[in-house]
Write a structure and sequence with these properties.
The protein is of the alpha+beta class and 334 residues long. The protein has one domain: Neuraminidase, CATH 2.120.10. Helix content is 17%, strand content 37%. It contains four helices and 22 strands. The strands form five sheets. The chain has a five-stranded mixed β-sheet, with no helix packed on it. A five-stranded mixed β-sheet has the order 6-7-8-10-14, with no helix packed on it. The chain has a four-stranded antiparallel β-sheet with strand order 1-22-21-20, with no helix packed on it. The longest helix has 21 residues. It starts with a helix and ends with a helix.
């Protein structure tokens, strides 16, 4: 393992010590963020069982979402008003479900990948049917393992051109994109390979239908990357949400957001013109696959924080200064 990779992974472990900081930042963003890109509420989640929506998929004319940790293994299908029309029960007691990804019409990948304390030896994904009605299924569970150490993650994406799965971690200093094997094995561990880096504190991600662009969101901002080179196409602030943890793209390049909390709206956002033009033009950084190499470090500010008032700036400055202090001490040589 290279020194740079070691530093990145050690910093991610420090993120477990600083686990409270992202939630404080998320709360602050929800209350104080700038308006962000234009948005339109297209539905309101009406099911009182959906209190911690942590993943979002557009499946035809329906939305699909799931609660994160604390719920049983179930996935909800919503109509375009936000009313629950179907529930798929797939597991009795998953560890920490954090993401969904498209798996073809009437199906999604559900990702049990959350790990705030960085203790899980492996994470898991399963492909399940969704749609109207109530069903109970026993899907094949695929185990995924990180190459060096446990990571926290809230994002699972599927390349629409190849069907390959990718996990995006929620690192405090930057996320890492890990590729799953091209063909998953149900009989053993599927080793993940790092292929690049993204924004810190990634709460969800989604491919555009062209398979050449990937959007990764945080609590208050999002970044679009050209795929597979992960060249940054553009970043933008997101509209206010209570705790935004879901993003989805439909077949018409329309981007939708969901949030934790009861009775939360599903928003359709308008991408900035430069990002919209890049995506529509099919611009890409490379036609070659992303290299399976150690990720590079990202020197990026905490995304999505736009706060008015010197008092609030002082508050968040104190939080971040404390985080830097703890991070610096943790990264000292033993």
């Amino acid at each position: 393992m290279s020194p740079r990779t070691r530093r990145i992974l050690r910093a991610d472990r420090v993120g477990a010590v600083l686990a409270l900081v992202p939630f404080l930042v998320g709360a602050g963003v929800g209350a104080n963020a700038a308006t962000g890109v234009p948005s339109t509420p297209v539905a309101t989640v009406q099911d009182s069982s959906i209190t911690e929506s942590s993943g979002l998929v557009v499946d035809g004319d329906r939305f699909v979402t799931t609660n994160d940790s604390g719920d049983t293994g179930r996935v909800f299908t919503l109509d375009r008003t936000g009313r629950t029309v179907g529930v798929t029960y797939w597991a009795a007691s998953p560890t920490d479900v954090e993401a969904l990804a498209p798996a073809g019409s009437g199906q999604v990948w559900v990702a049990d990948i959350g790990d705030n304390d960085r203790r899980r030896q492996s994470i898991s994904v399963a492909r399940i049917p969704v749609g109207p009605g109530t069903r109970r299924v026993e899907p094949t569970i695929f185990q995924l393992t990180y190459p060096d150490s446990a990571q926290d993650a809230e994002s699972l994406v599927v390349d629409p051109r190849t069907g390959r799965l990718y996990v995006v971690t929620k690192g405090f200093t930057g996320g890492v994109v890990f590729a799953a094997p091209e063909v998953l094995s149900a009989d053993g561990q599927n080793r993940l390979t790092p292929v690049g880096s993204t924004i810190p504190i990634a709460t969800d991600a989604a491919f555009f239908p062209d398979g050449r662009h990937l959007v990764v969101r945080g609590y208050g901002s999002a970044t679009v990357y050209a795929w597979p080179g992960l060249r940054r196409v553009g970043s933008f602030d997101l509209p206010r949400q209570r705790q935004g943890e879901g993003i989805a793209v439909d077949g018409r390049n329309r981007v939708f957001l969901s949030s934790e909390g009861r009775d939360q709206p599903i928003l359709r956002i308008t991408l900035p013109p430069s990002v919209r033009a890049a995506v529509a033009g099919g611009a890409t950084s490379s036609s070659a696959p992303a290299p399976a190499a150690a990720p590079t470090e990202i020197a990026a500010p905490m995304p999505g924080i736009s706060i008015s008032g010197w008092g609030l700036w002082a508050l968040w400055g104190g939080i971040l200064a404390g985080g830097v202090f703890v991070l610096t001490r943790a990264l000292r040589p033993n």
